[in-house]
Specification:
8% of the residues lie in helices and 48% in strands. It is globular. It contains two helices and 28 strands. Keywords: Signal.
Length: 371
């Protein structure tokens, strides 16, 4: 906690002029996105218009609480009519999964303008899921265990092509940018991150002492984030990383904390979360990396924000700097939206810093649960 506060203090000092009349920093107003009709929710993606998608418990169906994909916009949350939302583009198209009988398996779907379309699968009546959609309408996902799919949809949401550009078994397509570059992982004996472009798949090396890696997201400049880890140890030990031009760099964390990077904006801001070593099912904290420096979002909460016990995971960031993820309210997981607020008044900064410090102290006293 002391390290985090020190980092914030340093950030503030940078903005002080010689006559101490100007201070500038960024805090975040936290909004509780809420739930559909259940008790918990998580936000996974946000587009540049501030539209948020994720999954919430619902109370519909004979089985009680079942997952439901949601779209949140301007304070209103709506049920999209399928199970899990994974991605939204700047046209408001949403892709995800429609489960079959709450089995966790099902079909990849596209939601657009209130209509839901079954994207299909590689084989008749097969299983599939969609992981991402870019602004040109390209969708990536997987079908069965025989490979990953690249599909293109027209302006009406109709699939106009269906192909397997890399027919390699056990590939996982995670993210596609507007230049059709794809980031993901290939599994042989172990997972290894890759970049795919122009029909060529290039594997990305993990950190020197690790054996495996997984790419989570790619921005429009081809920068990829994810994590590197070793399968030779007794526990899972991920370290957040970024690949730029094929070169891997480990992201800064505090003390012995392990971490995962989830998303990267076009300006290079990265979000994710960390957790204590050997405690991956214990305390987690939402993180933001700016210019290679790590910040705990719990230390940057602006006054008058919706009250969370703690912000546990940051899952997505848009090009406006808004962040979405998961926190805890009264012990229940809830989706949040963090909107940046730029403050340049000395008195305001000092007051806000005090609030942020108290928030961190409170957060570290909470007993958290890993999703």
């Amino acid at each position: 906690m002391a390290t985090t506060i020190s980092t914030i203090a340093s950030l503030i000092v940078i903005g002080i002029s010689s006559n101490q009349t100007a201070i500038a920093t960024t805090l975040y107003h936290i909004t509780d996105i809420g739930t559909l009709s259940g008790t918990s929710s998580t936000a996974v993606d946000i587009n540049d218009l501030g539209q948020v998608v994720g999954t919430s418990d619902t109370t519909s169906g004979d089985l009680g609480y079942v997952p439901g994909a949601f779209l949140w916009e301007n304070g209103i949350i709506r049920n999209l009519g399928f199970s899990r939302a994974n991605s939204i583009n700047n046209s408001g198209q949403v892709v995800g999964l429609l489960e079959r009988e709450n089995s966790g398996l099902g079909r990849a779907v596209l939601w657009q303008n209130g209509a839901l379309k079954d994207i299909g699968a590689l084989y008749p009546n097969g299983e599939s899921f969609a992981t991402d959609i870019n602004d040109t309408g390209q969708i990536i996902g997987s079908s069965e265990s025989d490979g990953s799919c690249l599909l293109k949809v027209d302006s009406s949401g109709n699939v106009i092509s269906n192909s397997i550009p890399f027919p390699i078994r056990n590939t996982l397509f995670q993210s596609i940018n507007n230049s059709s570059q794809i980031a993901g992982a290939i599994s042989r004996e172990e997972f290894n991150a890759f970049l795919a472009e122009n029909g060529v798949l290039t594997e990305l090396e993990p950190l020197p002492n690790d054996t495996s890696s997984l790419a989570q997201n790619i921005n429009n400049f081809g920068q990829i984030v994810g994590y590197s880890y070793s399968t030779s140890g007794p526990t899972f030990d991920p370290k957040a990383v970024v690949w730029k031009n094929g070169k891997i760099t480990q992201l800064e964390t505090s003390n012995s904390y392990l971490s995962i990077a989830q998303d990267i904006s076009d300006s290079g801001q990265i979000v994710g979360y960390n957790f204590a070593a050997n405690n991956i099912y214990g305390n987690t904290s939402a993180l933001l990396w700016v210019n290679s420096k790590v910040l705990n979002l719990n230390s940057l909460v602006a006054p008058n924000s919706d009250k969370f016990d703690v912000l546990t995971k940051a899952n997505g960031i848009n090009n406006v700097g808004q962040i979405v993820g998961t926190g805890l309210i009264n012990g229940q997981e809830r989706a949040f939206l963090a909107t940046p607020i730029f403050v340049d008044e000395p008195a305001s900064i000092l007051g806000l810093l005090t609030v942020g410090t108290l928030g961190v102290s409170s957060a570290f006293r909470c007993k958290l649960k890993q999703r």
